[in-house]
Amino acid sequence: MNTGRKIAITFAAVAAMGMAATTAMAEKMYGPGVTDTSIKIGNTMPYSGPAAAYSQIGKSINAYFNKINKENGGVNGRKIEFISLDDGYSPPKTKEQTRKLVEQDEVLLVFQGLGTPTQSAVHAYMNQKKVPQLFVATGATKWGDPENYPWTMGWQPSYQTEGQLFGTYVLKNVKDPKIAILYQNDDYGKDYVKGMKDVLGDKASELIVAEESYEVTDPTINSQIIKLKDSGANVFFNVATPKFAAQAIKKIYELNWKPVHLNNSVSNSVGAVYKPAGLEESKGIISLQYFQDVTDPSIYDTEPYKKWKKFMEEYYPDGDQSSSFTAYGYLVAQTMEQVLKQAGDNLTRENVMKEAANLDLELDMMLPGVKIQTGPDDYFPIEAMMPIAFDGEKFVPVGEVVSVN
Amino acid sequence: MDLFLQQILTGIANGAIYACLALAVVMIYQAIDHFNFAQGEMAMFSTYICWSLIAAGVPYWAAFFITIIVSFLGGLAIERIIIKPLHHAPVLSHIVVFIGLIAIFNSTAGAIWDHTIKTFPSPFPSGSFGGLIGLHEVGMFFVTLILLLAIFSFFKFTRVGMAMQAAAANPVSAELVGIRVAWMLALGWGLAAAIGAVAGMMIAPIVFLDPNMMLGILLYGFAAAIVGGISSPGGAVAGGFLVGIIENLAGTYIPAIGSELKLTVALVLIVTVLLFKPNGLFGKTIVTRV
Amino acid sequence: MDPRLTVGARIPIKWVTLFVVIGVILPFFMDGYTTFQATLVMIYAIAILGLNLLTGFNGQFSLGHSAFYAIGAYTAAILYFHYGWPVYATIPVGGIVCFVAGFLFGLPALRLEGLYLALATFALGIAIPQILKSSHLEELTGGVQGLDVFRPAVPEMLPLTMDQWWYLIVFVIMLFMFWVAWNLINSRTGRAMMAIRDNSIAAKSMGVSTSLYKSLTFGVSAFYTGVAGSLSAIIIEFVAPDSFTFQLSILLFIGMVVGGTGSIWGALFGGLFILIIPNFAEEISTGLSYAIFGIILILIIYVMPSGFTGLVNLIRTKIRGRIGTTG
């Protein structure tokens, strides 16, 4: 489609005004939203509505920026002004709020906008306006497309990547696999299934013996689990959000079905899934992870955990310390901090994007060996994960860090 | 065959969830002559109260009954404080108030107890009958029947129950024969809130407790009440089981439907039943006069 | 009784002219973002007017108008995306497709009354996002990923920005739709619609074909909402099933009641309300924004149980009464 070009022309006038503002302060090179003492960063999150559980990410990011503002005076002497707006997980609202951030609040960039449909609604807009849409909080594959969308970048391993890693795991470790899949009927669920099928290749239709989807409005997924068990599968691939993943674990145990249970990283949390589902019931579940699970008691004595805990207690005291979302927010905020550090005094949108695509970072709450790496052609910051098994108490590694590359 | 049997049993188990909530829907309908869309969120909030009590060390059954009483009083208070002053407002305005209540309960629960799912204890032993149906589901089935019996007797054999029906059906005449209509409405709200609380506490062990717990269930509860007949508690329970079973069987055996259009099945079911039996399968026919 | 049933109504030219003049010059005094918001308000107003024709003037409830909004939006997006239609041409088609859908849904709905209908439509509203992303339709609808819609550039001879240009287009469409609604309500058809609302059995016995009028009204109502949906797809430049959840139905419903059931121009106030108040609630408290929104709603119903128009009418009668007694 060449309509994209036409729109680029339409917005040229607006962009030109932005440029004029930039050149006026040539020495230090500031983009919109930056002064000598502050940097404005925008964000949209579902603080209300059915997806409100994710808002913990926004709150912990905010807490982290408060921390560095207070303890280090911000980044390179500029305090971070984090403007996080509610979009209720509704794409039209995301568009409205994002336009507000870009056009009225004049933020330097938008960071960690959450949700695939919501961020898709502003994907084209951000790229036409040439505003960085950094570290989008979803695992869709489309965020890593520097050729067509140079202003957008994801952060976490894509769902498809994870699906591929699971597929590899099955082929390597399970003899004569017959796979049953439960997935949420949306982009997230389907990307996982796609990844798994990528790896299985021609054998996919033979090895995958049953696929069942569920809707977030379904009260229970018991009916689906019964159908999956009935297929005679010996591998169960659980692509569900915490509530439904926990239901599935419980039901499988109740049905006395004993497949190799693969659980997606979205629901790989002792506090939010395995404990509610029952620790005994969750024994033996295999998952992939890239950062430490904060509910795993075996890390309680480590230095990084203590640092995180201190941060939570001081800056986000109401925060849930058993939720992986708070740890996620903590880590992604550090990534943002690093980008701004690298950009130094050249805080234009172009340079921020350049630095975001120039990362080689290790964070202490990540699993050992998992790095955040990007390049001009590599817009996927995290691509490695480690297979782990839950032993009823804590996670134990069941293999090396694996990566799709 | 095994699959068929299991899907029926799971349908019954799901049906028990819908039936429980449908009873609360019927209760309020008997009392105020229309639906309360905030019913699900009120039940969810009650369940959180029980959860907090248990977390604070109160034994299960004590917490259970305290919650029922608190919910009853809460329902009463909502009617007296919020609904009563709007007595003369149009029905549409009432619905907007219900929407307001939904928003308030949902958002407040999220703010107080956050959005992470919580385990809610079951009063029944854990485990299942040969892997076919969980013991909690069986227990819930009986709780639903006990509730049904209680509601049935209440409306059939107690003066208050009959007075309440009269007040809902014809407020003016009821007032004339000495029924305190205003208090009957409040009582109806209180009872509906109490039944909703029981439903919530029974449902939560299955679906886990979170502020959006009732989101999907409420529609099924309404569907159950309508399919069965909104004026009949027995019909609502039967409707609940029917919706549960049909939904599961259609999802299993009709490939075009599968799991992704299960909710659509519920929709088609509502519309079909209403087309042929506008008062539900077990409802009384109502004659309208000009 | 509705005064329109007895007195022939006239459009208050003075006020309408003032409204049009202000409406036209407004986008030249607002920034792009505010213009965009104002455009959204007008789109909501058209959708709410559609709902109001059904509920306010014909007495049929609907809590599922997000379904028609979605159908309109998807019609526009699909025609543009798959068939390369110019976006301008997709707008009326979105409305027509919805007219048919609404008419068809109106047929079974004939047997449903009051809250039963509300529930059946509510179920429709909940089911529509699932249907949109179902694997059967995925090729057409783009599934959960949705479809992008890009607007062509503003015609070159016009010194307008994209936001202003589309604001004006939507403004003109809205004026036209309001004018048509006005004429409809003040025609024979409109009187029949309202007679059915007020007493359907009496209307029937007087020879009004209630079933035809009811399903036609459903169709017309869906037409309005569908046009609004098509416009929203173009203004937002994106459609996805998650854009059309039942929450949208509820918002439209709230807009109708708060604006004033059975009032044409109240729809505009309703549109304003559902855009501004959620943002306002969020300003007060991010975590509790829904709770605050709920409290505002209940308070509004206290202050004006018959909506904004009801309040205005009340004030007007009071003022008139005072003038009448003193003068």
Short description:
The complex is a heterotrimer of chains A (405), B (290) and C (327). With 405 residues, chain A is of the alpha/beta class.
Write down the Rg of chain B: 19 Å
Dominant shape of chain B: globular
What is the global morphology of chain C? Answer: globular
Mean pLDDT of chain B, as a whole number?
A: 85
Low-confidence stretches of chain C: 1-8
- Major beta-sheet overview of chain C: 2 strands, antiparallel
Global Rg of chain C:
20 Å
Major sheet characteristics of chain B = 2 strands, antiparallel
Oligomer description: heterotrimer
Proportion in β-strands of chain B: under 5%
Count of discrete structural domains of chain B = 1
Series of secondary-structure elements of chain C, N-terminal to C-terminal: HHHHHHHEHHHHEHHHH
In whole angstroms, the N-to-C terminal distance of chain B is 54 Å
Q: How is the largest sheet of chain C built, in terms of strand order?
A: 1-2
Enumerate the spans of chain B where pLDDT stays under 50 for 5 or more consecutive residues. none
Would you write up a description of this structure?
- The complex is a heterotrimer of chains A (405), B (290) and C (327).
- Chain A is an alpha/beta fold and 405 residues long.
- In chain A, 42% of the residues lie in helices and 17% in strands.
- In chain A, helix 5 links the parallel strand 3 and strand 4.
- Mean pLDDT of chain A is 88; it is low at 1-26.
- By secondary structure, chain B is mainly α.
- Chain B contains eleven helices and two strands; from the N terminus they run H-H-H-H-E-E-H-H-H-H-H-H-H.
- Chain B has a two-stranded antiparallel sheet with strand order 1-2.
- In chain B, strand 1 (128-129) and strand 2 (133-134) form a beta hairpin.
- Chain B is globular and about 60 Å long.
- The longest helix of chain C has 27 residues, at 210-236.
- Chain C is globular.
- Mean pLDDT of chain C is 88; it is low at 1-8.
- The chains are: A alpha/beta (405), B mainly alpha (290), C mainly alpha (327).
- Chains in contact: A-B, A-C, B-C.
- The interface between B and C is large, with 43 and 50 residues.
